[in-house]
Amino acid sequence: MTTMHTLNPTADPATDIDEVARLIRADGTRVCDGELDPWVDDVDHAFLRDLYRDMSLVRSVDTEGVALQRQGQLGLWAPCRGQEAAQVGTARALRPDDFVFPSYRELGVGLVRGAEPADVVLSWRGEVHATYDPQRMRTAPPQIIIGAQSLHAVGYAMGIQRDRGGEIAVAYFGDGATSQGDVNEAMVFASSFAAPVVFVCSNNQWAISEPVTVQARFPIAGRAPGFGIPSMRIDGNDVLACLAAMRWAADHARSGAGPAFLEAVTYRMGPHTTSDDPTRYRAPEDLEAWAQRDPIMRLEALLKAEDAWDDAFEAGVADRADELAAAVRDAALHARSREPLAVFDDVYAEPHTALAAQRRRFGAYLDGFADDEEDAR
Amino acid sequence: MSRLTMAAALGHGLRRAMRDDERVVLMGEDIGRLGGVFRVTDGLLDEFGPARVVDTPLAEAGIVGTAVGLAYRGFRPVVEIQFDGFVYPAFDQIVCQVAKLHYRTQGRVRMPLTIRIPWAGGVGAAEHHSESPEAYFVHTSGLRVIAVSQPQDAYVMLRQAIACDDPVVFFEPKRLYHRKGDVDLADASPMGLARVARPGHDVTLVTYGAQVTTALDAAAAAEEDGVSIEVIDLRSLSPVDYRTLAASVRRTGRVVVTHEAGGEAGMAAEVITSLVERCFHYLEAPPERVTGHDIPYPPAKLEALHLPDLDRILDAVDRVLGRPASPTGFEDEVVIPEAEEAVR
Predict the structure, then answer these.
(1) Considering Cα of B40, then B44, then B46, then B52, what sign does the dihedral take?
(2) Average pLDDT, chain B
(3) Angle (CA) B66 B71 B74, round 5°
(4) How would residue A3 be classed by pLDDT, with cut points 50, 70 and 90?
(5) In the predicted model, what is the mean pLDDT of residues B159-165?
(6) Are strands B114-119 and B180-183 parallel, antiparallel or unpaired?
(7) Which of A131, A219, A320, B243: CA 20 to 30 A from A335?
């Protein structure tokens, strides 16, 4: 049962960031970990390159998202720069039929799950609230309310149990969410009912301007065992460790042993959203220190050290990253707003007389401008 | 036709719904072995087992939030919030998640949840056990809101709520749980329509929930006084069946709305405004509302002073009829400011 990394009860969530399970050091050297290694013994160079490509695509789209917002094409963007490994590594460990409940920052999870370019930008542009079909992508719409989705994942997992399905449900949330009642209630329900769910906390050190120490005085992974849930604290900038840990957690949940919890220790390199100014609350030297731990550079160093890197691969990834970013830009610039009465669509699944009347009245009001539009032509 | 208490009628409704559709799952605190604190789910655990009658941890957001996940998976969860005042911890999950997921996803995700709430006062309960939170949910787009007043409706409308593809907040007046009525177990009347509980031609008295009983008592008393009151039980608070209401008001020209909840921005305010929009030229008098006071629900020994009783309703009826009645209390507020200091 104990796949948990022993936690020092005096550990500090902010300073003891090296108390994590890891397979690739910041300088790109591969290290062994008795618990994690068996979960990635099939990972060859081709697989590592795929992980590198995925992370590069996420970064490219993320950079484009920020640019589009700055150019006034998007209302808002929530950057995930620095968190690519935590997202790609964990999402790559899942089966397509597993069901994922992400927060708004999980761009990389969405891309791995099959999001299309338009899916990435239309909601930030304000055209629709949610873009892709959650049932088809088996991924819930990104959640804005902090931690609410953790309960949805547990409920979904309870449904899997009732259907005797072999899938698992996954909840992604940040360190700030662990302060929320919903996340704590989710762990109670998951544990009590042994639901096949994995909780992934991306501890990026900051909840807007609140440091993780305002959320936690002990490493967050240390909480789960108190709920009867085994947990692991991993290096969130080490994509291989994230893959391995998630494979362990998913296997644990899938086997019927109940929920598992991962804390991926990482860092949000950018602002909380494009409306935020992190220079007001964090030190440039912290940013510099974390830049040295960059997940993409780290994997590049490993690939080079293992002689699995060549110019053609690098150029191929760069081309694909540019292509995807261009497609995202194209989707944003060519978005077509829906017709006015669409604001009333899908409020209810069945007819609702009050809303139908309001729609009728607003439609009649809009029709009153038809003559003006005719004149203007 | 069976003679059943409302609690038993609700239990029958749940049993029928669970037999008809194996995706119906019940969740709540103490609903299994105990059968619910009001015994509505009595016997269901034995018939359907713990996978379908789930005793949950004591966490309301958890109950509703996990039900959301079950709905994603294609289940039709029916959750019991043990008491009205306990729904507030689940408020975010209800108004931000349950109510909005269909809209947010352009109709790709359905939330056919039924949220049952033992509701309102008059039973001498402790604090937080007598609340009337219906206006919060009526105000939330994406939810349907039902309030039942008799065993027949309880049985039929609960089944309709569970079969509905939209989320339904379902209010069950605690005061009436043990009151018996005739229940036709084959009834299939449509959802969302108001019911003329007692026909009349002088005044339209609109209400819902346990207050229907009080309104009917008032109508019976008024009859002795030669006044004919038409009592309408809304049954559906969202949407409201304005066809039935407006048809009545156009005949009577007078309207009184009564409910237990406080009056400020409440159901009566909404119903009266909507009727004025539809029936202004038919009205013979300004509409009146008779509601609970805008106070926190008072201690049990004082609750009779809060709940609108027969006399307060008849007082308002007198006013809309232009008959001598108690002062409205608004008289002093109507002042025309003559100097700047007067408008402070």
Answers:
(1) negative
(2) 95
(3) 135
(4) low
(5) 97
(6) unpaired
(7) A320
Looking at chain B, the whole-number percentage of residues with pLDDT higher than 70 is: 97
What b-and-e string marks burial along A327-349, b requiring 16 or more CB atoms within 10 Å of the CB?
Answer: bbbebbeebeeeeeeeebebbbb
- Contact between chains at B92 and A192 (C-beta distance less than 8 A): no
CB–CB of B144 and A155 under 8 A?
no
Q: Which residue of A has its CA nearest to B68?
A: A152
B72·A148 Cβ contact <8 A: no
Helix B242-252 with B267-279: angle, nearest 10 deg:
60
DSSP-assigned letters across all residues of A20-32: SB-SB-TTS-B--
Q: Do B65 and A152 touch (CB under 8 A)?
A: yes
Measured in angstroms, the CA of B165 and the nearest CA of chain A are apart by 6
A186 contacts B62? CB cut-off 8 A: yes
Confidence of residue B341 (pLDDT cuts 50, 70, 90): low
CB A163: neighbour CB atoms within 10 A? 13
- For chain A, what percent of residues have pLDDT higher than 70? 97
Chain A residues touching residue B112 (CB < 8 angstroms): 349
In chain B, the residue whose alpha carbon lies closest to the alpha carbon of A355 is: B239
> Which of B52, B50, B31 minimizes the C-alpha distance to B42?
B31
Secondary structure in 3-state letters for chain B:
CEEEEHHHHHHHHHHHHHHHCCCEEEEECCCCCCCCCCCCCCCHHHHHCCCCEEECCCCHHHHHHHHHHHHHCCCEEEEECCCHHHCHHHHHHHHHHHCCHHHHCCCCCCCCCEEEEEECCCCCCCCCCCCCCHHHHHCCCCCEEEECCCHHHHHHHHHHHHHCCCCEEEEEEHHHCCCEEEECCCCCCCCCCCEEEECCCCEEEEECCCHHHHHHHHHHHHHHCCCCEEEEECCEEECCCHHHHHHHHHHHCCEEEEEEEECCCCHHHHHHHHHHHHHHHHCCCCCEEEEECCCCCCCHHHHHHHCCCHHHHHHHHHHHCCCCCCCCCCHHHCCCCCCHHHHC
Residue A104 designated active-site: no
pTM: 0.95
**Residues above pLDDT 90, as percent of chain B:** 91
Q: Nearest by CB to A189, from B66, B68, B73: name it.
A: B66
**Residue B239 with chain A: CB contacts under 8 Å:** 352-355
pLDDT for A135 beyond 80: yes
Give the Cα separation of B246 and A360 in Å (integer): 19
> What is the reported pLDDT for A288?
96
Whether the complex's predicted ipTM is more than 0.90 is answered with yes
Whether the per-residue pLDDT at A156 is higher than 90: the answer is yes
Distance from CA of B333 to the nearest CA of A (A): 34
Distance CA A329, CA A321 (A): 12
Q: Would residue A348 show up in a list of annotated catalytic residues for this protein? A: no
